[in-house]
């Protein structure tokens, strides 16, 4: 998050960390970041760092939910998350605004999961029904948590195919009702 604050002209950047030790280090890094950016006369975007677990109900987590729902871009390092936490993330991301972007270290759905004919009554609630997914491929340099190249994925919230699915479903029901009369 501090990299984004240093490299972009964002209105505000938020960092959210669940684990105690990384959250503690994030606060230390915050002070160091401000010191060194000011020391070198560099501008940076406003930012806030939170220690929060969005999966647990609390007033802080309600704030985090609002942040995620209104974000234009979210980066999530979900490489080491288990299935349960990734599913909770997907539920959160489903409430994001249209055309918001999610960049992640693990894809939120299979790369080829969303085709026009694939949205049906079994999978319309899956996040794959509302995102366009792309593979950014490995970026230059290793990542600290693996010590080697890491692929990243970009997902854009796009509900048009889901809306089309429901419109077609509604049209079929109307035709059925008309034919029944």
How are the secondary structure elements laid out?
Blueprint: H1 2-7, E1 13-17, H2 20-39, E2 47-51, H3 59-70, E3 73-76, H4 83-93, E4 101-104, E5 131-138, E6 151-157, H5 160-180
Parallel strand pairs: 1-2, 3-4
Antiparallel strand pairs: 4-6, 5-6
Give your account of this protein's structure.
The chain is α/β, with parallel strands linked by helices. It has one domain (52-180): Vaccinia Virus protein VP39 (Rossmann fold, 3-Layer(aba) Sandwich), CATH 3.40.50.150. The protein is 39% helix and 18% strand. The protein contains 5 helices and 6 strands, in the order αβαβαβαβββα. The strands form 2 sheets. The chain has a 4-stranded mixed β-sheet, with no helix packed on it. Strands 1-2 form a two-stranded parallel sheet. α4 links the parallel β3 and β4. The radius of gyration is 20 Å and the shape is elongated. The model has no long low-confidence stretch (mean pLDDT 84).
Question: Can you write the helix and strand succession as a string?
Answer: HEHEHEHEEEH
Contiguous runs where pLDDT drops below 50 for at least 5 residues:
none
For the biggest β-sheet, the strand order reads 3-4-6-5
Going by CATH, the architecture would be 3-Layer(aba) Sandwich
As a percent range, the share of helical residues equals 25-40%
What's the CATH topology label? Rossmann fold
In round numbers, the mean pLDDT is 84
Structural class: alpha/beta
For the termini, the CA-CA separation is 60 Å
Figure out the total of helices.
5
Look at the structure and name the CATH superfamily. Vaccinia Virus protein VP39
Instruction: Return Rg in Å.
Output: 20 Å
Largest sheet, strands/sense/barrel: 4 strands, mixed
Structure summary, number of beta strands: 6
Oligomer: single chain
How many domains is the backbone divided into?
1
Q: What's the CATH C level?
A: Alpha Beta
How much of the sequence is in beta strands? 15-25%
Shape label = elongated
């Amino acid at each position: 998050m501090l990299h984004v604050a240093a490299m972009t002209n964002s209105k505000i950047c938020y960092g959210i960390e669940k684990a105690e030790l990384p959250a503690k280090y994030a606060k230390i890094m915050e002070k160091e970041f401000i010191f060194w950016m000011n020391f070198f006369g560099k501008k940076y975007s406003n930012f806030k760092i939170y220690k929060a677990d969005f999966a647990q109900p609390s007033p802080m987590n309600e704030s985090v939910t609002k942040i995620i729902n209104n974000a234009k871009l979210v980066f999530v390092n979900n490489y080491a998350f288990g299935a349960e936490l990734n599913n909770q993330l997907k539920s959160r991301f489903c409430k994001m605004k249209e055309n918001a972007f999610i960049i992640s270290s693990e894809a939120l759905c299979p790369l080829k999961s969303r085709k026009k004919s694939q949205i049906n009554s079994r999978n319309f609630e899956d996040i794959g029904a509302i995102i366009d997914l792309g593979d950014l491929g490995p970026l230059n340099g290793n990542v600290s948590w693996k010590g080697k190249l890491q692929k990243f994925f970009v997902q854009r919230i796009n509900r048009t195919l889901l809306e089309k699915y429901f419109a077609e479903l509604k049209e079929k029901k109307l035709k059925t009702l008309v034919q029944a009369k």
